[in-house]
Batch of 4 targets.
Target 1
Amino acid sequence: MPTLTLIQSGPSSDAAYRTDLIRRYIAASGDEFAELALLAEAARYDKANPGQSLVDELLGAALGDVA
């Protein structure tokens, strides 16, 4: 399993949530429905919390060492 480093530009009260969602997305690798559900959850989060895109973080994390 790839290692994960969450990069935040500043302290965030929701860093644990973001990290958990990324870990769940990586763990769901290969399960299309689980991945889509997590991407939808991240999209709802992004809509409610403008700023750094959680969807982009999920997609980047899925690239692993390629990114």
Target 2
Amino acid sequence: MVLCVIVGFILLGLLAWWLQGHGVFFGSFAVDGGQRGPTKVEERSGGVNFSEKKGSLVRECLLICKPSALAQALLKSFRRSADLEASGWAWKSWPNLQTIAQLLWPPAQPLEFARDHLQLADNGIIALDWVVGPWKSNRKATNTGDSLVLLVVPSAAGQITRNIQQLCQLALGQGYYPVIFNRRGHNSCPLTSPRLQPFGDPSDLKEAVAYIRFRHPTATLFAISEGSGSGLLLSYLGECGSSSYLGGAACISPLLKCQEWFEAGAPWWYEWSQLLSLKRSISRHAKALREVTELDGVLGSCSLQDFEEALFCRRKSHVMTWEAYWDCNDPLRDVDEVAVPVLCVCSVDDPIRGPPEDTLPWELFQSNPYFFLLLTPCGGHCGFLRKGSSPSFSSWGNMVILEYLQTLVEFFHMEERMTERPFRSSIVHQRLRWGNLPHREASPLSVQLHQSFSWQRSYTR
């Protein structure tokens, strides 16, 4: 499998080199959604007219958000950042290669995990992988009085990509305690009940957050998602509102208009690889799932939409329409209830999400004070490779996200120090400052968790 990925990567590299030499650019999208070669003015913005967007330029990127005190703090932090994308190098014009490098290329140094299995009320099991190594000698200590826990939500297929491993390694070095959320049946997590997690059902993620709060009752908890995993994270934030117990969240290359994305279809190479991975995972649990779903239709599906519809809409006990399924699973269905800052890092040339004019909810970022869009002209899907990073293929996007989280920590502490002063108008009102930061004392929920969970810890990787 790894050999096939390497051969495919080399062939795509040669193809991209040839197209680059003949003046053809990957992922330069016109405003109307069509593909064409960029003009000199549009080359840096990937075909998107940044002057028409209500945002602030940060080097080559655009920060789109509703004006607020937190927005000003983030803008100031991003403008000081030394990790934002540098211009003038060949990888910028190859979004497909950036995407493949981060999603399919094997990691240079695998992480070491300590796994917690959580048994839920319906006897289902989810797994939390705590990153315990490898440690670096230059690990930083947090400059706050409490520990920082970073919950990472992979894509809907559950893949622990190279990008996620790099993010966890960086976070570990900066004093965070990274933990990866694994859905039922994913990444060797046993499927003990005939139920898989629908695209936007946050019920299992709620239990995971409750358990993390039990283990670290005084820690500040942040969450980061990758790709389609953003659907689960945003569903959780919308459904829980001010009770999410998160200090902030970030989404790397999120898919925000999910129903339209499934219906439009992804690039063939991505759709094929995802379908193969999902079908292989389903086939491992065929005995349990055959009781509740028509597996022939699931395993015979030819697109991600057919797979999702066959698995969740045509269950033997309950049949629903495609539209009804998304009424319950659309990540933005409760977006008005989100009560923590959410940064979305997206690229214009994302080959999986598609043209930004059609796939990004611009009004959400311009009107909702909790949502921030950092839009970069280049980067692919979860790529954002930095200049000179080869052969390690490190992502500047991960560094920017960790800087964003540090800015949130400093901003929250500044707001807490100002509590004796008259409250000034800003994004962080009372329910954000006090409703979402972790409680500093043990809560009644911590006492009840022993009755709700049974768990065991084992070193897995």
Target 3
Amino acid sequence: MPTPTFDDSSDRGSERAEPERIRPRDAEFGRADDPSPTSRLALGVVLALIAGIAAVVAHLIGVVRSADGSPVGSGAAAAAILSVALPVLVAVAAAVGAATRRIEFAAALLAGFGAVAIGVTLLDVTLLSDPIDANRLELFRPLSAAVLDATAGSYVLLAGHAASVLAGVAGWSAVHRAGLGDGYGHSVYSENVGRAAAGRVGPLLSVLLAAFGVLATGAAFASLYRSSDPVVIVTAVVESPVFVAVGSGVVGIAALLVAASALASLSPSVASGASVGAGLGVLGFAGVGLLAGLSTGARVSAGPGAYLGTVAGSGVLLCGAALAPVAAARDRRDLERAQEREKGARGARGVAGPGTTTPGSNKWHAAAGIAGIASGVLFVVGSLLPILETDSEIAVPQILATRMVMVAGFVLILGSVPLLFSEFASAARPFVALFWLGAVSAAASVLQSVVLAEDVDGVSTGVGALAIIAGVVSAVVTGVLALFAGSAERDDVDTSADAATDGVVLGTGLFGAVLVAVGLALPLYRGSDVTAATVSELPWGWDTWGQMLLAVGIVVAAVVAARARATRGSVLLAAAAVAGIVHLASWPLTSARAIDAQMGPAVLPLTIGIVVLGVAAALSARRPDR
């Protein structure tokens, strides 16, 4: 075992040298029987190579055949080449990374691609159950309505997808193991060691990556194709076969979660690799669809999901590729600035700053984040599954309110992910502490429809409704845990000064909150046969109770925000505005259930209230923090 060495180089920007950890020369981390990142990465590379080979073999032998022997058209050549090239490229890039000792990048690359591959795997399960509705135009083009059967190629293709997912698991495991070793998240500027990638690359690149992640999520729920061909039938994603709908949703959610996790990673190399992998995965979904739509032939063209998804995937890929070099450049610049200063401003020791968390609050933030993500996933999945079960002779009623549950679920996921990372937890906590009410309000509309439908003979609660009910329970738990996190957070900061109420923020925020509350009490639209939920119809249904619960929460939030710290109050008011926007969006998304629907009296106060809440949030952000 070598003797300990000391790093006294000035380029680390530290005040004094610190000894490196003692470790064996050939065992990077820990015990000899505990696999190192290198061995785990090697397993991931092997699995990725298997996935690439499986993709090639599946295309060569074909994935479907006609039951009556009629011909089946071949897939779009350009799209087929891209769908094969991407998993091969990931495998080769990971192998090169392993060979050149870029362990963190290569492992994260596999993890990011494998996360998106989960959704693609679910999508292609449709090849076994209902191939003609899979619309995998890079694999085959149906020429008639003849029944299609899966061949061995479908099973090979699914096996390849499974290998990509397992490679991602191995990559994630390697990243986790690497994070336990010396040098993880290294920076030439010591103040940036252990800092999240978002803080090291700057706000512009962080916002771009997050925006492309959100765009990828939205694109996953837009159709990849437009078709006037009677054989190639393209429906809305939410109305597609269950594996297509759920798989598409998982692709979008996975891309968003990988982007958020990348920004929170302590290693720019991991952030870069994960984002590049997720970007390639999204391109394997939407980019392949774009090429197929443009080249598959007459009466079929690329849809909005293909265009938006290709832009999103390319954006995530390019931002990911830029993360590591940008972080390195900014680290060098920060070091140069630190060396030029004779003295740097240092905050008071022993008191947590306004943007920090400590172990006392971290566990509550993480618990609230896990519960919020679980609730959001349950809402999204439940909105895609059958809400009602009916007898064979009864048509299943369409419940448009599930669209709002899906939107609210995505927003809740987006707000909950930062709670898992200490650098962002304290800023995101007020958003989740309020928005869970918005998610419950959206779910209440679906539950009201279920209650009414169950009065009909032959109609019963479906698995989707049960998932949404579980999501409501999880959302309530999220709200309670967020309150505990806020209490623990206040214990970690200096509260010796009396909390003063900002009159301007209070007046502005309360005015906006009351307007939104009025909008929640009035109907969003009216029709000749039905009217949206309103307090004037007695007795109140679940939907009205949900809206009133949200109205009370928004008014209380406006009062609390005026006494809260500036940034917390701003986020709380912004959450109230977002909750109002989600409710307002139910007008265009659900008004089709009413005949001759017209704008209701709630739209005007809601719109004005949302704008005023936004102004109040800006005013709160500009006031001096206490």
Target 4
Amino acid sequence: MMDRRGLLLSIGATIAPAVALADEGVVKGRKGGPNMIKGNPPKLDFGGGLIVPMNASIFRTLWEGEDRWITYGRALSTQKARAMGQSEHAAIGSMKLMLLTLVFAPDRLERFETCGWKLKSGDTADLVKGDIALPGRPVMPTVDEVSSSMGQAPEGGAVGDPAFHAITGYMVMKKDAPLTYIKEKAQLLSEAAPS
């Protein structure tokens, strides 16, 4: 079973490699990763105003720094490879939907933790639906074997079955996908089109 410490370790292991995906692995003059800020919860400082808390708030949030966007996804499955793939899909899907909402319906979002964006309503029905090809890359998922006795049945199993919990991040550099790119390249569903 994944406890709070396990979740924090998984999040930390997932977030740190995201820095290496940036140009030459350097973030505001720092090599090797973000700085840890002690506290409750601890936070990772990527530089450029991007400070991410190491708790469950990383999910369902679009994190924005001066030079990048980051989203996170997680999945639970009885198969390790499936959990990894689904966590990547969740992170990529979150990125697309949150960026589309930021561009076409920014009034549905609110600032969170100084550098995050989340839905005001908390209802995913308020996300702008559509698709866009993004030049980002997922970070290799971290995977832990857990008991699904947390009350959630893993895909392909039942509550109590052994399962794999995967967490991954997805990063898009702003220079590769500025908001103007999102506006020009987005394919919106008709009901999501701005009025």
